[in-house]
Amino acid sequence: MTKYANAFGRDDNTTIVRRKSNFLKDISSDKKAVFGLVVLSIFAFFALFAPWVAPHDPNGLDFDMLMPPSLQFPLGTDDLGRDLLSRVIHGTQISLFVGVSTVLIALVFGVALGLVAGYYGGWIDYVIMRYIDLQWAFPNFIIAVYLVAVFGAGLLNIIIAISLAFLDDFARIARSMVLTIKEEQYIAAAKVSGASSARILWRHILPNATAPIIVQATVSVSYAILGEASLSFLGLGVEADTPTWGLILADGRSFISRAWWLGLFPGIAIMLTVLSINFLGDGLRDHLDVREVKDV
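^ thats the sequence. predicted structure below, dont judge the formating
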């Protein structure tokens, strides 16, 4: 891409400051992003090492029911005598796995559709974007609920449902970036030099469209975690013996008046995770903001 840009006289002294600066330096100067990174690192640690970190079996009916938080049970026990701390720690695995996997699937297929639609245009663009417009007309959560209701509950179905619900967001962003980037002179130079469409899309257009896509992916992870928790709370999520934050909330709603810890602690876990991801997403947006340029 550099040789094409130089051929058309692009000023090499004009650089994108946010992209050129060190990522860790930028993030460390943002207190909210640091907070998000630290909290997410802690939750990621719990997710990876849950079987060794959790003090008890998350499904073990070994203790007295509805015991309040204490030194023995820092988060108390639920209505079946299960250790709430162990269930929240194991729930981190499901929530983060669903959040990351659904966004990765939506990103791959959504960006592919957006790239094809924006680059080729014509009837291909029309067909793809009419589908995207149709999906855009419905809230993501409604789409996810419908798909889970049709295909049934379960972890795999939840991942597929939330992925399809988020696909249109990535497709729209990718298409809008392609429509702008493909008019650049270095793209015309690449075409003249004989580069194939696939090479132009992969080597020249996609790298220059990554900034808004990465930010959207970061934000979408938090929405996916909320979506999984909401579906599980409604009874449309994973199996009843699988500890997830939404399912823990659903199990404790009947006892919330006399066992406040059943709703408080999983709710705090969801809040901290979503808030941390949003803070980190803001930091990434500032770091990757291609609109901030200056002459060096």
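The domain at 2-8+31-295 is CATH 1.10.3720.10 (MetI-like fold).
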